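Inputs:
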Amino acid sequence: MADVKDKKEEKEILTKKDITKSWFLWWLLAETNHSFERMEGVSFSLALQPALKKLYKKPAELKAALKRHTQFFNTSANWGAVIPGIALAMEKEKALGNEIPDEAIVGTKTGLMGPIAGIGDTIDWGMWLPIILSLFIPMAKQGNGWAGVLPFIIFLVITMAESYFLFHLGYKSGTASVNKMLSGGAIHQFITGASVLGLFMMGGLASSYVNVSTPLKITAGAKVLSIQHGILDAIAPGILPLLVVTGVYFYLQKVDHNYTRAMLLIIAIAVILGAFGILK
Amino acid sequence: MGKITFVQACLIGMFYWLRGCRFGYTMPTGPVGLFSPLPAALWVGIVLGNIPEAMIVGAGLQLMYLGLLAPGGAMPSDPTLAALISCTVAIVSHISTGAALALAVPVGLLGVQIPNIEYILNGFMAHKTDNDIDKGKYGRTYIDSVLYPTLYKIVLYAVPVALVLYFGASQVGPLIKMIPSQITNGLNVVGQMLPAVGFAIIVQQIGRKSLLPYFLAGFFLQQYSHISTIAIALAGLFLAYLHITFTSSKNKENSSVKEG
Amino acid sequence: MANYDNIKLIRVDERLIHGQVVTQWLNKSEANKIIIVDQFLSTNDFLSNVYVMAAPAGTDVLVLNPEDFMKKINNNELNAGKYLILFKLIDNLKKCFDLGFSPSEIQIGNVGSSDDRKVVYQSVSLSETEAKDLLELQNKNIKVYFQQVPGEKPVDLNEIIKKHFSNLN
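Outputs:
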């Protein structure tokens, strides 16, 4: 049973600065030496190393701890920052003499990789990025160099904040932090709302940036009818761009998921239709 | 016809090396982070002294690669390399935006091969790092797993790009001049249509078929009103809020059924 | 005779429910329910709950051990939906096979490396024992193929065996 003196010792073993140091190493190095065999594994160990050195004074224990964390690991490292935090919390418990088998730490760590990655990838790359980018693409189209920097600084700040917060949460609350993140379905609601916003903005952006029209005309005697202005635009503006986007979408859904082939197909179609003056 | 100096080619190559280093998780591979098409275009524009033209090509590329996630880790295309090469060739050889975007596709494909070599080398360093731990040389783990990879990435990433651009960037121009004008018209259409691929991809990534009407809503709103992106963002926020409010009564938590 | 009609996809993926990957396979296979078959997880409340919560909204998740899973199969209890069956590793799959599991095909998507495994496909590492187990499944007319995401070309088990485990051929 921990008495007041023990609690004080517990608090001092790893200070907030130690945790932040490990967080920073994780943020900095997570993907640097990616290999097929280990992916983010080695960096996981490198990030925890300073803290583990404080926890395990016996060389055999330290080596064992360092090596169990160089093994295969892969997740979305921003939201995934909660996992090294949790691992560190479990290592701390183990170092203090509580019975925590190695397999529990490794099992928890690898068990969480998948689900957290799902959430992280969706929110960071599938939500923040398109939304922030669509705000700055107009600038870029006008040749403004700031569009090359601003959106990414914003993205960097948001994701570093996510990462910092979650790493500390993982350490403070251990495995309970995952429950805090996932329970109640709040996160799924957030993702739904973000998806609505994302799709809406992508629609608006697509409207501005896919500019295909047809220069074809129908001549009947003295009358000349422009197919674009007379027919297509009269039905609804932007039909041709919309057709292109939906065409590619259905191609990817039904025919083939290969993005490169889709791009090559579009190039071929565009060149042919453009060369024959059907589209401009 | 424009020229590219050796120093310029090296500077652009160094950008690719930095991206290969992957320091800081938010700046890694793919269409995200500090090595996306837009910042890459900016760098090329600064190095070659023509920011506006670079940014225009960069915008098209960023849109093309908009949704390019790497689910499960396998990137189908390398937007950074595509941007560096396409923007450089666009400025040095004066090719059109459409041609530059078309060029990006094969270049992006090639770029995927280089990391594969890097990953194999990293695999060797991982074993060396384990050995360091066994021998108690903890500090050395950082040298083996961080410093050495950073150094050999210069050879893998910066050198090829610098060489290709120095010897090749200005050669593309005369080739393009030989293309008949109809094909050139075709390439202009390419410039307009390729971003559509990016949109289709991101719509697919976001995934939920029931939410697709919102894409159409945003599309037609912009078509009819031509309002600014900020206005669309605000309208979108409002719609998102309404959507969650109206569907929250239908939403239940996933049923957790655990047996055995 | 057990009915496998409602099982739309059987996949071995060490990361089980990994966001985009699982979403893509759910879309492609048109499954709307997930069953995770894993001895260890079926006894671990915390992790089981994580998978339930992390699955795409509206997708039910069942976590079963091999025996209970085979009971459901053999009693034809899988008829209220279209199922994606997920195994973490080959061991639990082999266990089900030994208990009579005989679907028409199995997809190997993702297995991490370890000391006794070698990388045989971009996202899959196998040990010799696991390769032998897969061959046993194939000999009983179960097609085994390797595929990470829908956009990639599937690779047949025979190709993998020829290249990496030629001694087993």
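Remarks. Chain B is about 75% helix and 0% strand. The first strand of chain B starts at residue 256 and ends at 258.
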